[in-house]
Amino acid sequence: MNRTLMEKARSMLNGVVLGQEFWAEAVDIMCYLVNKPASSALDDKTPHEVWTSKKHSLKHLRVFHGNAFVHVSKENRSKLDKC
Asked: Could you tell me the residue ranges of all domains in the chain?
């Protein structure tokens, strides 16, 4: 499982172009997410549900990465500028 978490964390950091100093946060997030999906071995329950006997919510999850764009006003750009 350690190798799986590290591979997923490495992929996540490379996908958002973050430095290696964020590896602990990435592994923590991946460990959290690995335990969220339901499993057929657990009668379609999540490990959290089996452990606590309570359903959990996924409403608190956010996107790890999002694209950001800078708006350049019409006055400061021309038709031939790069997008």
From this structure: 2-76
Contact 25/12 with Cβ under 8 angstroms? no
40-60 residue pLDDT tens: 888 888 877 888 888 877 788
Query: Length of the chain in residues, anyone?
Result: 83
Give the predicted TM-score (pTM) of the model. Answer: 0.55
Q: Are 38 and 44 in contact (CB under 8 A)?
A: yes
Q: 59, 38, 57: which is closest to 47 by C-alpha? A: 38
Bridge partners, residue 39, by sequence: 45
**DSSP conformation letters of 19-81:** -GGGHHHHHHHHHHHHTSS-BGGGTSB-HHHHHHSS----TT---S---------GGG--TTS
